[in-house]
Design a protein that fits this description.
This protein has strands spanning 4-15, 18-30, 35-48, 52-68, 71-86, 96-111, 114-121, 135-142. The protein is mainly β and 143 residues long. The protein has one domain: Porin (Beta Barrel), CATH 2.40.160. This is Alpha-ketoglutarate decarboxylase. It comes from Formosa undariae.
């Protein structure tokens, strides 16, 4: 149990009548000072006024590698179920329910329990991905 660490991420985004909130609890097993792997859950809610609302639920497998002190490389595979409902009074889209993967490769700067960095979704698809772009900043915390 001494090698298991808990943490995850919280995400908030809002703008012109848009809101997105994410909770990502996770746990990792610290194999040695350089390598850790783990799993987590993902829940995201998005809303664009007069356009759509969506919920996304899924899981994540994570691998973390510190080649040198303070630099962390990461790989995260996510399998996500998307449930998107459009405001059909104004929009001519069909509601959607589908599974979609994401493979996020990242690099970050780590101090103590916190890593700040950027990651890239190599499976990004303009029409299906839940992320607005393949690039995303992140803050990862494990205790």
């Amino acid at each position: 149990m001494d090698n298991i660490r808990f943490g995850g991420g919280i995400g908030l985004s809002f703008g012109n009548e848009f809101f997105s909130g994410t909770l990502e609890p996770s746990a990792i097993y610290q194999v040695n000072p350089q390598f850790a792997f783990g799993a987590g859950l993902n829940f995201t809610y998005n809303s664009q006024k007069n356009f759509y609302k969506s919920t996304t639920i899924g899981g994540t497998l994570t691998a973390l590698f510190n080649p040198i002190q303070n630099i962390q490389l990461s790989g995260e595979f996510q399998q996500l179920h998307v449930n998107r409902k459009y405001d059909n009074d104004r929009v001519l889209f069909e509601d959607e329910k589908y599974w979609f993967p994401a493979l996020l490769l990242g690099v970050g700067y780590q101090t103590n329990n916190v890593t700040v960095g950027v990651r890239y979704d190599v499976l990004y698809d303009d029409d299906k991905s839940i992320y607005a772009t393949p690039w995303a900043p992140f803050i990862r915390v494990y205790f």
